[in-house]
Amino acid sequence: IVDELECSADLGDYEDGFLTFNVLNEAFLNGTLGLEASASVTIVCELEGELTVSKTADTSYTITHEWDIDKGVSTDDGFELDGTPKIWLYIDGEGDETATWTVDVTYLGAEETDFTVSGVITIENTGDLAADIASVEDLDMAITDCELDGASFAIPGRLNPEVTITCKYSIDLDEKVDGENVVVVEGEFANGDPFEYTATDPYTFDDADVTEYFATITVKDLSDLFGEAELGTVTAPDDAEFTYEKDFAWADYGADGCGSFTYGNIATIVETGQSANATLKVNVQCYVDETAYAKGDDALCFIPTFRNWGWTNAIDPGSYTWDLWVGAAQCDTTRGTLVGTVTVDYNNGGLSVEFNLEAPNLLVESHVYAGSTEFPQQRRGRRTVNTVAPGQYYIEDGLSGEIYVIVHAVVAYPDPNFGP
Predict the structure, then answer these.
(1) What are the CB-based long-range contacts (under 8 Å, 24+) for 233-237?
(2) Helix, strand, coil share of the chain (percent; to 5)
(3) Alpha-carbon span 243 to 72, nearest angstrom
(4) Are the beta carbons of 101 and 136 closer than 8 angstroms?
(5) Alpha-carbon distance 72 to 77, whole Å?
(6) Distance CA 336, CA 329 (A)
(7) DSSP 3-state assignment of 81?
């Protein structure tokens, strides 16, 4: 019976290469149990312990592409104030020009980081004996956890025959250097024999799993003038330049839209959040309302009879063309601005006045005095006094001979103080 038994650790106690188990013998005589005996049998049982240890080694690293963005705005005239481009739009159209925005995206290169080696250690009990695993050590790597059939396997622990465990490992390197990784598994089999197994696997970064960031970027633009727009994409290692422009004219703003304007503008790399600003200032000339008087060749200044300036003109019947001045304080035309002319036609009994303003000047209101006295007359109680207040101007009936004419106007003309 003993000779026919297979040598198996399941039969009994296995120690020092010997297997002890009980055997029950039964004898029958004429179908009747006649003899029953048992014995303890010890045989030499050659059971072998063996582990198969293998491992994998995979590499990975990260590439981060780096960019720079810059933005500027230029004008045809190239005028700047405190480093900021500025456009001056004049009423007569002088200064109308084009502004051009430029966005420059520059590729700066790439940074390689996060060099990692990781893999799986496989330990399979391919022998006849249970193996008590004392340690699983990787010479370079940190082993994170081991599993048996999806459940955690604690080390030290027993690994029975025909059972496999897997352990994961990973390490971060300071640089991208190829190498070789060694794992050592130590312990003893159930028969007390110690064991030490090693497995090696070279690793290289030539075929590493690479994660790239910002290889392709998107450039967007946000502007007070144009709103939000996508300018385009750029892929490493290329640089890119985006441009767009706008024409500026006084007519686009008009008299009601004059003043000073600041237009902000920002371009952004969406993926990295980098941005660049460009600011453009636009000044639009305004009209200013100013008192104007016509001055003939023989004009008489209001001063010193009155405090304010202006002229009264003595004429005989005929046709006259006089200059129309604004801002000529103290009747000094060098202080004033010539904004046009007036044509006065006088016939005995009738008078007409035509305003001829030079563009872009505008006539806002007008007043004409024509009479036999130098200045209009105004009754104040029992007295008659002279006045030059435009609201008191009139044209006498039945004009004849020499008369006096005052031509007053309120003229809207381009702000003379406008400009750099």
Answers:
(1) 234/67, 234/105, 234/107, 236/65, 236/107, 236/110, 237/107, 237/109
(2) 5, 65, 35
(3) 10
(4) no
(5) 15
(6) 7
(7) strand
Q: What global pTM score does this model have?
A: 0.69
In this structure, what DSSP letter does residue 395 have?
Answer: B
**Cα distance between residue 302 and residue 304, in whole Å:** 6
Location of structure tokens 């007409």 = 352
User: Taken in order 153, 157, 162, 167, is the CA torsion positive or negative?
Assistant: positive
Share of the chain above pLDDT 70, in %: 88
Tell me the C-alpha distance between 217 and 272, whole Å: 8
Residue pLDDT, tens place only, 69-127: 999 999 999 999 989 999 999 999 999 999 999 999 999 999 999 999 999 999 999 99
pLDDT tens-digit series, residues 130-159: 999 999 987 666 676 788 888 899 999 999
First vs last Cα of the chain: how many Å apart?
120
